[in-house]
Please model this.
Amino acid sequence: MTDVHAPKSGPEPAAEQDAATRPFGTHPEVADGGTGGNAQPEAGWLRWGWRQLTSMRTALILLFLLALGSIPGSVLPQQGTDPGAVDQYYASHPAIAPWLNRLGLFNVFASPWFAAIYLLLFASLVGCVVPRTFKLVGSARTPPPRAPRNLGRLPHSSSYASALSPEAAVEGAAAVLGGQRFRLRRPDAGSGEHWVSAEKGYLREVGNLLFHLALLGVLLSIAAGGLFGYKADKLLVEGQSFADTRSALDEFNPGRLVSGSDLAPFTMTLNKFTASYIESGESRGQPSNFDADVSYTASPGATPGTYHIRINDPLSVDSLKVYLIGHGYAPEFKVTGANGQVAYQEATPFIPANTGTFLSDGVVKAPDASLGFMGVFVPTAISVGGTLESIFPAADAPAVSLIGYSGNLDMNGGASQSVYQLDTTGMTEVSGSPHLLVPGQTWQLPGGKGSITFVGVKQWVSLAITYDPGQLPALACGILALAGLLLSFFVRRRRVFVRAVTAASGTGSVVTVGGLTRSDASGGFEEEFAELAAEIAEAESAALLEPAEPAAPAEPLGSGKPEPGGNPESPKPGSNPESGA
Amino acid sequence: MFRAKRRTVVTVTAVLAVLLAGALAVTFLTQGKGNASDGGNGTVEYQPGHRPLAPDFTATSLTGTTISLSSYRGKTVVLNFWGSWCPPCRQEAPTLAVLAQQYRSQGVAFLGDDVGDTPSNALAFTRSAGIGYPSISDPGYLIVQKFSQVAPVSDTPTTVVIDKTGHVAGMVLGEVSYGEMTTLLRNAAVTQ
Model:
């Protein structure tokens, strides 16, 4: 529809009305399936499929599926985070575990079906956002529609008689509306009509778009975390240090695009680990505090720093986080072979078998003395009917009980072994019964096979090192999504029209104000409209009263001169909370 | 006109989305387990002119002497990352000991980097295995970290061959074999 001519002889009022109430977008929607009858059937199917995929309903279903799919990921043990727990699950549910595995439920976030949901959602969002962006740009560049002829037919309208001429009345209304940051449209020069169209609330669509874009951002952030992030575990004994390299880590679960040389080049030393326990009362033995005192350098040559890593208080170094996830005891042993030479001296991590009392199991392997030991460590030892037990988790009265073996440990065969297990095949027990040692004591093995000394006790910590580059962007996008959603909920798109005609009496004019909104879910347009209409009328009477001397009311104000007194720029306090829209 | 434009937009978007989805799907689906390359042995070789410069370092040996890589300039260096706790390292050690003997006269020096270990344990092994060449005491993997950009050691053992000019000529991931090492050393001798 063109704006070139506006003949006085009523040009199809129905069409005018249509233009005013046309969708609050840019241009009429292309009719669905508007390819016409001559389109290729395949193309039609493709278009149909694409429209289905990018429809809001599909996106919501996919979002729901994504949430649903994450449930097994948090309920069932996952290969990536805890392979041991998966093995345990296999052992305890031998019948269903293989089936769950076939469905990828032990590795949900890397399973093809999860990726499919994720990617479809991604495609759906992209397919929705791009046309929306064009639509928004288009609507921002399209002026408001012309004012309909009969404003009384709009959902909201009011009219009043004015002493001003139609030009001046419309001018005053335009100033009020412009002051409230409405976008305005005036009739073409020389049309002889006096009206103003105003539109406001574009932020609604901006918010909507922001919401969609932020959702995309969340998806991309999570993908970035999965592709470029990594998780690693490291067991570190007091006094030991390690450099963040793949071979130094006990467990390393890299993202799909992480290579060994991408690790942050930090180094860390565990100076001391302190675990405090409640000494008395009901909860005696319960931990009250953990504190890992570490020194670290973010990169070679950087200034060393120190930190106290506590539960829920990780060390942040070079965009990665180091969490304290476990601890235990590492009794230090010195093993001497039959030749009298030291074959082994190391603080050996023992694994807690009882997390309440920290009774722990471990092995000592001295292959170069052909000796191996299985040990039980107790931090606070008592003897219960000849059996070694621990009564408190702190190392108040540490002791170890050792069973010695001699023979070939088969460590030169090339096959990997667990450092926590001793394969006694091909070895013989050196004595019939376990031998108890306290710090400082040495056990001379029978038959001159050597000796083992319990030097002392150190503690170890288990650290989780995580690098997730998607975490912060995901949070930011989440906040943006919420902001966008709020905008699109609370901002409404609305149009206000003002039309003035010369009064029947010949002087003054009749001014009609009409209002229209599409989405008034949150309500309030009626009040806003009433206030606006009142303000327009008020500004007008102010214009009539104020100019003391010259400006005769009938004087046209067509030069766009602002109202001297009415000051429509400052709306009444609180009258329009959405004036920024 | 709008109609044509809209259709183009939709088509372009569709193509982009499908491409992106495809790319992501490929990355998602082609990845194996994170540590997949751990078990695999392999040899990496660099041609002369394309050899990365090995980082210099000064460190303490298992017996307490100071060793710096730059002091080996003019010799080919075989740098073996190992630990006495690591069965494949222990298994390959005799091969390295033999090679060290054979190549000594040809200006090839062998050097160990003992990681995640204590000097007592490591020396007990070098004595029993008859390893004559020195090893750096590197319990915290610091030398490994220095090499991470030119010769990433993803697991022990890893053996890096550094040519006379101090550039990395190649590396063996996993246990070395006699044949692999003689080939690497022959090629490393060619520096131009």
User: Anything to note?
Assistant: The mean pLDDT of chain B is 83. The longest strand of chain B covers residues 108-115.
